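Okay, is this right?
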Amino acid sequence: MSAAASHGDHRRWPASLVLGAGLVLLAISFIAGSARGAYAISPFQLWNVLLDMLAGSTQPSPEHLVFMNIRLPRLLLGVAAGAALGMSGALMQGLFRNPLADPGLIGVSSGAALAAGMTIVLGSMWFPEMPRTLGSWTLVSTAFVGSLLVTVLVYALSQQDGATRVGIMLLAGVAINALAGAGLGYLTFLATDEQLRNIQFWLLGSLGGARWSAVALVFSIVTVACAAGLTLARPLNAIALGETQAALLGVPVERVKRFAVLLTALAVGAVTATTGIIGFIGLVAPHCVRLVAGPDHRIVLPGSALLGAALVLAADSVARTMVKPAELPLGVLTAFVGVPFFLLLLRHFRSRL
């Protein structure tokens, strides 16, 4: 039974209610994230900051400086990260027809992590000119390229007689993830203490490195990927019935698979290269939306993007305030929520595994 059909007997919320609730949750998370942190900004001060921005104030207050230079780029990066992970998770679950699928299954995150680790430990030795050429973009660039290369490798391994075998893609992704993990383990063995701290900080995920230049680039890539992903809603609904049935309905199944993998690699690769690894959002968000909205990807795809963005912003707010002025790694918090949720899914679907 497909993942989509498995929820067919649930009472569904109308699309307008699901998407409206997603927007409300995102707005609440955005406002809370704007106000909370080591430097608290009250709702009244936040309102004044917004009025100053609209009025083009030339004497910004401390709240204005904190919001514009620290909070706002961080929040926008969180929105992009959550939307990319949520939408990609919905695409992968629709493509694999399995609610336990996650963007990490095709090696996007592990490829970025391995490339980042190689850059941190071996970059100065193998490519001494790279930091001078790319500057602060060195780590982001290599992580993004690494995510794309690993995804292409997993996709190529899944090809058989001109067709993409999603089962083989899943197994290839598991194997490549294990190989990347082994490579990272070897790199941590070689790393100095400083390099080891850098690798660990990157692997645990954070929005703390948000810069306006990076936010603009990542936001642009994620916006294009999410807009393109919405066009796959109807084909994924047909594929949920089975690839043969979808082909009989005129759906170009192979083209849909390639496009879904490409969009996932672009969106998640861009986000992971900037924030590090933020796990389980791509697993949790689509399933929550599917529970209340049913299997229709016309609702699941945008709903997952909205809920994913809200979850990342909420987790980041907690990460910034739980042990302030220090900051918990974002990936740790998402794992605390995601792992129990994943185990509940395994328990719910164990009879079908």
